[in-house]
Amino acid sequence: xxxxxxxxxxxxxxxxxxxxxxxxxxxxxxxxxxxxxxxxxxxxxxxxxxxxxxxxxxxxxxxxxxxxxxxxxxxxxxxxxxxxxxxxxxxxxxxxxxxxxxxxxxxxxxxxxxxxxxxxxxxxxxxxxxxxxxxxxxxxxxxxxxxxxxxxxxxxxxxxxxxxxxxxxxxxxxxxxxxxxxxxxxxxxxxxxxxxxxxxxxxxxxx
Amino acid sequence: xxxxxxxxxxxxxxxxxxxxxxxxxxxxxxxxxxxxxxxxxxxxxxxxxxxxxxxxxxxxxxxxxxxxxxxxxxxxxxxxxxxxxxxxxxxxxxxxxxxxxxxxxxxxxxxxxxxxxxxxxxxxxxxxxxxxxxxxxxxxxxxxxxxxxxxxxxxxxxxxxxxxxxxxxxxxxxxxxxxxxxxxxxxxxxxxxxxxxxxxxxxxxxx
DNA sequence: GTCTATAATTTGATAGAC
DNA sequence: GTCTATCAAATTATAGAC
Lengths: 207, 207
Hints:
The structure is a homodimer. By secondary structure, the first copy, chain A, is mainly alpha-helical. Chain A has a domain at about 55-190: Tetracycline Repressor, domain 2. Helices cover about 70% and strands about 0% of the residues of chain A. Chain A has 9 helices and no strands. Chain A has helices at about 5-20, 30-35, 40-45, 50-75, 80-95, 105-110, 115-140, 145-170, 175-190. Chain A is elongated and about 60 Å long. The model of chain A has no long low-confidence stretch (mean pLDDT about 95). Chain A binds a DNA duplex through α3.
């Protein structure tokens, strides 16, 4: 009972929300202080400046969101049904927050990829962990490790890209369409040989 | 011969590069003036402030990038081969620019989706045009219009998401893996009935 | 640990000379 | 059309009283 409600926790939570919705450069320490009912001086008391605060916020929200998504993927018995449900849930979450809360790290990731090595590394670590977890999960659909990693990468990329389209157009359709397409892809990969790229019409069944 | 080399054109080009690489909030008018060998006063002479300049820059680079991608998709006779080639080319372009130049509107799109209605509308218009063009192109693979739109949305989402992953991790692999997956998906959708989502094992051939 | 005050810099934006 | 000067506000960051 020590990690809830404290000033540092409120600062971290407010930072996560602002970074998710408007990015790093557009978020000022004054806004973080106001939203967290604290002071700029308190931010410097608890964190190593704006960059250190953002680093901690990204890693923390990245871990939490990864756990949330992996939980959705284990919801149903059939993994492909869970996959479709996860995209549907992401669409519902987005609409429920008026298209504000999608991926907690993507906005900052694009902003800092070419300009801030510390934060680029933080977002990179988050994505690496997610792909790792997703790849393992995908092995329930395709046994080949390389094919599972390809599928995991495609699922994460489709989710992130659909978040961009749905937030920008204020329309859940891109997320729903991406979910349908990933379900189709997973189904096709499960029912066929899964080695390196090969036309399915020529695929031979190894079983 | 009137749209090249002028001060307004240099300002627009510099803005497009900076918005693509670091986003809207992180890009200052002073930096734009320096990079375009002009002055802040000149920016206000030619454009309607920072927002008006960004609006023009996004719409212009959006149209140019859309034309570039559609050109890649028409490169080979087989549309699916062209599709794979487009992702490969995107990966090569990204590496050649040291992971700086990916989608010219995505970074700003995520930044402004919840905070700037003018620029949200600009990025939304760009994405809408792209999906429109892609959907038409996808009808060469799947005849059903709704299925073609689903495929187009998935391709664009996978490209945008893979751009995030590749830029952040400084690794072309996510783009290449997304390309392989989209090729697989397109192949699966071409060789089968293309109505609303239905397991392929149960699909009946309408021809 | 909290809060105020402030330093040093940068931002978007404007006015006016040339 | 170009360029200089400048304004008001906001930025990150720090020092020090309480």
